[in-house]
Amino acid sequence: MFLDHNLQESLTLAKLEHAICIISFVALFLNLQEIKFLFLGEANLEGFEKLQYVTFPKLQILNIPCQCPKHEYLIRFLENNGKNLKEFYTSENNNALTLSIAKLCPNLKNLFIIFNEDELNILKTIFGSCQYLESISFWCGKRFLDEKELLETVAKFSPKNFYELKIYNCSHSELLPEELESFFISWESRTPKSHLI
């Protein structure tokens, strides 16, 4: 397939919704800075098998809000592209994938990922490895992280530039006012946020 070289050089954003065969087509645009995949159905996910080996040297934002490709494919993709990522969004919750984010995406500034209730240590690992992290979004309640433990972890382990926490509750919040007050007291004693570039 012939593509205009200027188009290949200038395209920086790709949003693929319900794409089946077009996923491998994305590999032709190596200057992409942002990619959003909206996978719905197994047929859509299969095209990612080839894409896992492609390196996008300018990629900064990866967004996979719904179904995720096989974890091993996505981890391989992060091995090739995670170092430059500034933002990563996925609704997936897989232990190996979450640990790979800590290892392969050290320059993240914004993260949305699902943590199970027993994965607080993985969050601590991400905070320790992703020292540029400024913002993170979570689901809390039921089978997800406990709000109180989450706030304690954020206050104690988040990096110095961290300033934005978004909590989505899948059930009614059980956080008590005194627990929230305790978080703000702990937060106040942190090192002030340094200048952000």
Automatic annotation (TrEMBL):
<dbReference type="InterPro" id="IPR032675">
    <property type="entry name" value="LRR_dom_sf"/>
</dbReference>
<protein>
    <recommendedName>
        <fullName>F-box domain-containing protein</fullName>
    </recommendedName>
</protein>
